[in-house]
Structure formats: C-alpha cells, structure tokens
Design a protein that fits this description.
The structure holds two protein chains of two kinds.
Chain A lengths: L1 H6 L4 H20 L7 H26 L8 H18 L4 H26 L3 H20 L9 H8 L13 H27 L7 H24 L5 H19 L1 H11 L1 H6 L4 H27 L10 H11 L11 H21 L3 H27 L1
Chain B lengths: L5 E10 L2 E11 L4 E5 L6 H8 L9 E6 L2 E3 L4 H6 L2 E4 L11 H5 L14 H15 L14 H13 L5 E5 L7 H16 L3 E5 L3 H7 L2 E6 L2 E7 L7 H9 L17 E11 L7 E11 L3 E5 L6 H8 L6 E9 L2 E3 L4 H6 L2 E4 L3 H5 L6 H6 L7 E2 L2 E2 L1 H14 L16 H14 L4 E5 L7 H16 L3 E5 L3 H7 L2 E6 L2 E7 L5 H16 L1
Parallel strand pairs in B: 3-8, 3-9, 6-7, 7-8, 13-20, 13-21, 16-19, 19-20
Antiparallel strand pairs in B: 1-2, 1-4, 4-5, 9-10, 11-12, 11-14, 14-15, 17-18, 21-22
Helix pairs in contact in B: 4-5, 8-17, 14-15
The chains are: A mainly alpha, B alpha/beta.
C-alpha cells in the first residue's frame, strides 16, 4: 500500500475514483454487449446526466463549507422549469430573456436561502428542507397541477442541441475531433508544466512511468471520446456548458481568494474567522451560487424533457449530494474537488444508463446506487482512520 | 493499611518533548483535606489525571498506592472502583438532563436488566442532596441552576459512587464568594464523614482555610509539603515556594528600543455574548508603545483572552464600548478583517481549534490572512505563495518534510511557528500573542522568544498574554495584571516580581470580597 502511495504521489483517493469509473464503464460495456460505448449512447449519457453534473458543481461548494448540503435543489429545478415554461408559453417572452429571467429567479432563491443560513443562522439542513417543500409547493401552484409542453426548439437547444460542424463531411463531425485533439494538447502541456513546477520546488512527484501512463491514458480517453462524438452528431451543447463549468469552478476553487476562503471555512470555521475571513459572506455566496446553478440545471432539464411538470426535478438533490460524496468530498467540509464531484456524477450516470440498457428496473437501480454511495464513503472513512491509526 | 490512604511514588510523566512531571511524590492521610498548589503548568492537573486514570497505567512511571495496595488504573472506571473521583474544572454534567439523571449517569439505578427504577433514583438523589445542603428538586434540569449548585451536583454524583478520595480541580474558580464558602464548608463536613479530599486551587486564602496539608508543585516537581499546625502556612510562605525559582538565561536578550505610545485602549467594557447582563471586562485602560513587549498577567479566567479578542475586531463579546486608538487616531473595527487591515493581529491560545486549518498544509495556513497581498490579476500567485511558505519555514525553523505537510501532523511548537508565520506575514503593528508557548517544549520556547524579540526590535508592539509568570518576567518591558475582568496592577520590568503579581491578584480578590 505504501509503495502504491509513493508512486502515485500520495493522492490515492482521486485515482481510485477514476479507476472505479473506468472499471464500472468496462463492466457495463461487457454486460450491455457493447451498447454502452456506442456513439449514440455516449451522447445520450451526457445529455441525460448534465443536470446532475451542474448541480454537483454547486453542491460541492455547499458541502465544502462544513458539510452543509442543499436539499432544495430538486424542487428549485422544478420551479425554475415551471417559471421558464410559463414565461415562454403563456406570456410569450422571447426564449433568451426567459432563460435569463430563470437564472435570476435562481439567484433570488439563492439569496433567500443564503440569508437564512448565513445571517439568521438557521442550520442549512432546515432552511433547505423548508426550501424543498416551499418550492415543490410553488411549482404545483404556478403550474396549476398540469404540465406545460412543448417548448420551442431554441429553448431545448441548451439541453438537446449540438454544436454545428465547421465542415460538411457526411457522418463525421470534424469539429468534435478537433476539439478533442486541442483538449489533449492543452492537457499534456498543463500536466507537464505542473510537474516541472513541483520539481522546481523539490516537491514529491509521481514517478516518470506513472506520469507517462497517466498522460497516455487520459489523452487516449479524450481522443476516443471525441472520436465517438464525431461519429454521432458532434458536440452536445450541454457538454460545452458542463466543461465550461468544470473549468471555471476548478479555477475558482483552486486559484482565487474566494475559493480559498471556502476551503478554509470548511476546514475550520473558527480559525477562518479569526484569520479575517468574513465567514457569513462566504456561506451566503455559496448558496447564491447554488441557486444560480440550480436554475441553470432547471433550464437544461426542462429543455431535455421538453416540458415543465409539477414533479420535475424530484429527488435530484440526492443525486447531486451522492455525486459529491462518491467523488471524495468530506462530510465534515473542507475537502473535495469539482473534478471529483463530476467523476462521482459520471459514475452514477453510467450506473443509471448501463442498468437501464440492461433492463434493470428503476427500483433496483435505486437500491444499487445506494450501495455504491455507502461503499464509496465507507472506503473513504476506512482509509482515513487507517491513515491516522 | 498504612499511614496514608493514598501515596503516589516517583511519578514521572513525559509528553512528547516535555517532562510534565519529574519524580513527583504525594502522600495523603485519610480524612484530611490535602491541597495541591502551584503555578499554571506546574503539573497539578497532570498528576490528578494520572491518579484518576485519565492517563492510563503505562503512560507514566511510578506507583500509585491506595490503602497500601499498588493500583493499576487503565480506565477512569478502575479508579472509581477504588473510590477515587475527580471533579474537573469543566463540569461533566449534561445541562439538558435533570439533577437525578445526571447524578446517576453511567451508574443508573436499575432493579433488573436495563429498566431504570426512577423512584429509587429520585429517593437516593434526594437523600444525598440533603447531605450537601442543596435545596433543589431532583427533576430540575441542570441548566436551570447556577454554577455553584452545579458544582454540588457534581459532588453528589461522586458521593453516589461511594467515593473515598474526592479530587476537586479548581472547584471555586467560577463561583461567587457565597457559593465558594458554602462549598468549602461542605468539604469540611465531608471530612467529618470520613472522606478524604484533594483540592487544587489558586485561591490561597481558601487553601489556608480548609487544608490540613499543602503540597507545592513547581515545574513538575514536588517542592515541599507543609503541614497545618507544624509549618508556617501563610499565603506569603506558599507563594514563595510556588514561584521561588531562579531565572537563568531561559530568555534570549533583546535590544530595548521602546518608542512612543502607538496603541491605546480607553474605558473598554465588554459583556458576555451568551449572557448580556454579565460584564466580562470592566473599564480597561491600557497603552502600548512602539517596540514594546507588554505582558498581560493573571490567572486563567481573568479575562485576558476575552480582552484581546474583543479588541481584535469584536471577535468576542457583546455590547462592547470604549475607544481604541492607534497612533492617536481612533479606530472603529467592525470585524476581524478590519482589525487586520488596521495592523492589529491576534494569535490565539488555542492553536488547534481556532488557529490553524489542520487539514491544510503549511503554506496555505501561512497565507490565509494575507491572500490579497498574493493576488496577481484576481488569481492567487501559487509560486509566490510557495516562496513565502519556504521563506518562513526557513526563517522560523519550522521542522517539517516540506511546506506541503499538513499542519495536523506537526508538533505543538512547529504549529505555533506556523501561526506566528501567518501573523508575521500579515505584517501587523500590534500583535497580541495569547499563551504563545503553551504546551511547547523548552527548546521551542526559546525559539519562540527569539522570534518575539526580533519583532520587537523591528518596532512591532507585542502584547503577550501568559499564565506562566517566569515568561512574563523574562520577556516583558511592562506588565499589566488582570483579575476578574479588570486591570488590577501595572509594573515596569525592573520593579516587577512573581510575588508582586501574585499579591496583586490576591489583594484584588480580597477587595472584591469586601
């Protein structure tokens, strides 16, 4: 174990997650007789799970602050979906403005909950449990118990659209492959730079073999993935959204002061406050951010469904929370990464998708996802207590 | 059975890097009240924790002999079985449970199996409450009675376990004088009933009033045992034994370059944030000069930490009133970041719970309070952060594998150096250091003192809170003495002594009584 730890540079947890994802993908690829990794299904997988990935990104920040969670996101997804459908279908608001107003709705909801949590001091669990009931109720009120459909194609573009290709080759999307190649090159440059920097300061680095293997494996994965996209209809619009979010939030959490403040607050709120961090403000903005991202997820989900329903978004909070914890976030706060949450979300997505293809019923899917969550967090707890003992 | 009910022989206890007890001997006669006195850090609590099994057998050297029998205590239960009970300074009661429930917590009265016999519980509790003179109903919740009465409930709890030796750690520290008197009378009464008491106390007038024998500890060693009626047990005599140590070169020298007054606090009043009627700090005036090291001496609970934190952007307290002036200009500090911006910093006494982000590495802890100075176009300059981390690691000699080591894996002294690095990097003009060397071994202490001296020589002003008088005497240019939320004395370095500080505190205690 120590040997493994040394060659991986002491960061087992992250690798375990990725390895687990790969293993699950391979298992389902075999079990589904190769359907899982068909180009069509890969596109589907992304479009189906985009909302969880978006929610998980916001949820991660909530969880980073002393393990707070947001139970209201499922209801807010439904509510925002209802608002945008009403704006477009009943009030004739142009799609772009309707989406903007939906995001503003999310912003206001975030402010509302953030106010209660950060400034009035009601535990986040209670505030968001209240929010879950409030916004589910309001969704039914504004929709008057019925669904609104269909939505215009421009609205659905975010969820179901594809980026148009630059060339016009039949059955092959060059743009997708090109993006894959560019992403691979950027990845290699970035990793090499990071490694050089660490070496410069004499920090521990992974052995050169592991490093090359890692670069090779991930580059291969990116290229294979983009090739698969190219064979179908190209780059799904939601993929662009998710990738942008991952980049932006990784940047924020890793490199900016607000990001650092979130981690510090989660690591030790008392010490953070005595270091001059305005802890209320941190907590408030984390929930505002969650509100906006939830609204975005609401728009994406409603577009994917092509209708706003009173039950829309039901139970999504649990998927998002599970994704973060499977992805290595600590239940006590201060530990976790955006990439981890995304990997956790993808793992759940592959499980869902794979089991659906195999014809496993929804009830069993739920149960199995529950087990995966338990095992992932249990593993984390065990490995930590062993490290201490 | 020998002459003593309890003997502790040649007890030596070592914590990583520091010898807390060195060949300590304690002999307690049956049906006596035995007082244990000494300065903070002299080893009293450690000794009692060994006796009660908090530090299990095997983690120390030496023997515990109870009623002529060598005992091996592995758990607290083992010592309780021998009739030894300890009442800690921090009461171990559950506020939301009733008196009866608390008394029999962990020792529930059941006839058979797991079903509690509440009648029996209440009857026995009532009986014992009478014994200690506590006139409360057994179903009253502990949070609804005052501290003095809570203390009595703790004693009842101990009595319910058929205690023979009762240890009380600073039992009167948080009590008003009536309650304290009542408690002391109770101890005398318990003695009549055949219970031996060991009492740890800073309040020497109480010690001289009730104790039959007094053992004095200093620096983890027994100095002497004074016997009532045989030896002189005046307060002066005890104080001399407590502090009478020669100060050699445990403190590095510094050039004293004291400048003009740069920081003043006037008429500072603060109330308890949990109880707005309780005034914690009363009319405090202090001033600090440039390049000066000012000591805040006092016993634990004197209000020094609360004072420093209330100045530090109202990090503690409610209804704060008074003026803070820096370089003659009045400051209004709404929160901690205001204080930091205005060049005031406070390094907490509680490194682990309030000073460090333990799950973060050294460099991230150092940079935490000054991230904006590491900013380059919105982004934290990681290379700069690393460079700063390395600088301080070298300058303050932080022993670690690298600046990426998590602070939870560092020793106490090195953790303190990280806290210091953080505040030095924040570049304050006035730095409050709360118990800067608590729990740190002698070598690291010297290094910490050197850092403090460097800062003072560079013109920074230091306010050092310390419960270790030698440290105050060795380091400070000037000393304020605090007691019960007030400044009760001020001494210049050349006129101050341990005796004077102690007398100052004792004197103010007496005045409050009058």
């Amino acid at each position: 174990m120590n040997y493994v730890k040394r060659i991986l540079g002491g960061n087992i947890r992250q690798y375990v997650m990725i390895i687990a994802l790969v293993v699950v993908v391979l298992i389902f690829e075999i079990l589904t007789g190769g359907i899982l990794l068909q180009p069509l299904n890969i596109s589907n997988l992304i479009q189906q799970n985009a909302y969880v990935l978006i929610l998980a990104t916001g949820m991660l920040l909530c969880i980073l602050t002393i393990g707070n969670i947001d139970l209201s996101v499922g209801s807010v997804v439904g509510f925002v979906g209802a608002i945008s459908a009403i704006l477009i279908l009943k009030m004739g608001v142009p799609v772009g403005i309707a989406i903007l107003l939906s995001l503003i709705t999310g912003f206001i909801i975030g402010c509302w909950q953030g106010l209660w949590i950060a400034y009035i001091g009601v535990p986040a669990f209670i505030v968001t449990l209240g929010g879950q009931l409030i916004f589910r109720g309001l969704t039914m009120v504004v929709l008057q118990g019925t669904s609104l459909a269909p939505l215009p194609a421009e609205y659905n573009f975010l969820a179901a659209g594809f980026i148009p290709d630059i060339t016009n080759i039949q059955g092959f999307n060059l743009l997708a492959l090109l993006c894959g190649v560019i992403a691979s090159i950027l990845f290699i440059i970035n990793e090499t730079n990071k490694r050089r920097n660490r070496k410069k300061y004499n920090f521990e680095v992974t052995s050169i073999g592991v490093f090359i293997f890692k670069i090779f494996a991930i580059t291969a994965a990116i290229l294979a993935f983009s090739y698969a996209l190219a064979l179908y209809r190209g780059i799904p619009m939601v993929l662009v959204i998710v990738v942008l979010l991952v980049l932006i939030y990784t940047f924020i959490t890793d490199k900016t002061i607000p990001g650092r403040h979130i981690y510090a607050y989660g690591g030790n709120p008392k010490a953070a406050r005595l270091s001059g961090i305005k802890t209320n403000k941190v907590l408030f903005w984390v929930y505002v951010n969650m509100g906006v991202l939830t609204a975005l997820a609401g728009v994406v989900f409603t577009g994917r469904l092509n209708s706003a329903t009173p039950k829309g978004g039901y139970g999504f909070e649990l998927d998002a929370i599970a994704a973060c914890f499977i992805g290595g976030a600590s239940t006590t706060g201060g530990i976790g990464t955006v990439v981890g949450a995304i990997v956790g979300g993808l793992l759940m997505g592959v499980l869902n998708n794979g089991m659906s293809i195999m014809g496993v019923s929804i009830d069993w899917q739920q149960a199995i996802k529950g087990f995966v969550l338990l095992i992932a967090v249990g593993f984390d707890v065990l490995s930590k207590s062993r490290a201490k003992g | 059975m020998g002459k003593y009910i309890l003997e502790m022989r040649n007890i030596t206890k070592t914590f990583p890097g520091v010898k807390a007890l060195d060949n300590v001997n304690l002999q307690v006669k049956p049906k006596h009240i035995h007082a244990l006195v000494g300065e903070n850090g002299a080893g009293k609590s450690t000794l009692m924790n060994i006796l009660s099994g908090v530090y299990p057998h095997g983690t120390y050297e030496g023997d515990i002999i109870v009623e002529g029998e060598v005992c091996v205590f592995k758990f607290i239960n083992d010592s309780e079985a021998k009739g030894i009970a300890i009442i800690h300074q921090e009461l171990a009661l559950i506020p939301s449970l009733s008196i009866a429930e608390n008394v029999f917590l962990g020792n529930e009265q059941a006839d058979k199996g797991i079903i509690i016999n509440w009648d029996k519980t209440r009857a026995r509790t009532t009986e014992m409450l009478k014994k200690v003179g506590l006139n409360e109903h057994t179903d009253t919740k502990v949070m609804d009675i005052g501290l003095g009465k809570q203390q009595l409930v703790e004693i009842v709890k101990a009595l319910s376990k058929n205690v023979k030796i009762l240890i009380l750690d600073e039992p009167t520290a948080a009590l008003n004088d009536d309650d304290a008197d009542h408690l002391l009378d109770l101890l005398l009464d318990l003695k009549e009933h055949g219970i031996t008491c060991i009492i740890i106390s800073h309040k020497l007038h109480e010690v001289t009033k009730v104790a039959d024998e007094i053992t004095i500890l200093r620096d983890g060693a027994t100095i002497e045992t004074l016997i009532k009626g045989v030896d002189d047990i005046s307060e002066e005599r005890i104080i001399k034994a407590m502090v009478g140590r020669e100060i050699t070169d445990r403190f590095p020298k510094r050039k004293h370059l004291v400048g003009d007054v740069c920081f003043e606090v006037e008429n500072w009043n603060v109330f308890d944030p949990l109880d707005a009627t309780k005034q914690v700090l009363k009319n405090i005036d202090i001033n600090v000069r440039k390049g000066e090291v000012v000591g805040l001496a006092g016993l634990m609970g004197a209000g020094r930490t609360e004072f420093a934190m209330s100045l530090f952007g109202k990090a503690y307290g409610a209804k704060i009133s008074g003026k803070i002036k820096k370089d003659g200009k009045e400051l209004v500090l709404h929160d901690v970041s205001d204080a930091i911006k205005n060049g005031i910093a406070y390094a907490t006494e509680d490194r682990k719970t309030a000073g460090l982000i333990l799950i973060d590495d050294i460099k991230r802890n150092i940079s935490l309070s000054s991230l904006s100075s590491l900013k380059k176009n919105m982004v934290i300059d990681h290379n700069m952060e690393i460079k700063i981390g390395e600088d301080y690691r070298a300058k303050l000699k932080i022993k670690s594998s690298s600046i990426l080591q998590k602070t939870e894996n560092l020793s106490g002294g090195n953790q303190q150096k990280v806290v210091f690095s953080k505040w030095i990097f924040a570049d304050p003009d006035i730095l409050f250091l709360d118990e800067p060397t608590r729990g740190i071994d002698v070598g690291a202490k010297y290094e910490i003192y050197t850092i403090i001296n460097d800062l003072a020589e560079k013109g920074k002003s230091i306010v050092m809170i310390s419960s270790e008088l030698p440290e105050i005497l060795g380091m400070c240019d000037r000393v304020y003495v605090m007691n019960k939320g007030m400044i009760v004395g001020e001494f210049a370095a050349r006129e101050v002594s341990s005796e004077k500080i102690m007398q100052c505190i004792m004197q103010s205690n007496k005045e409050v009584v009058k």
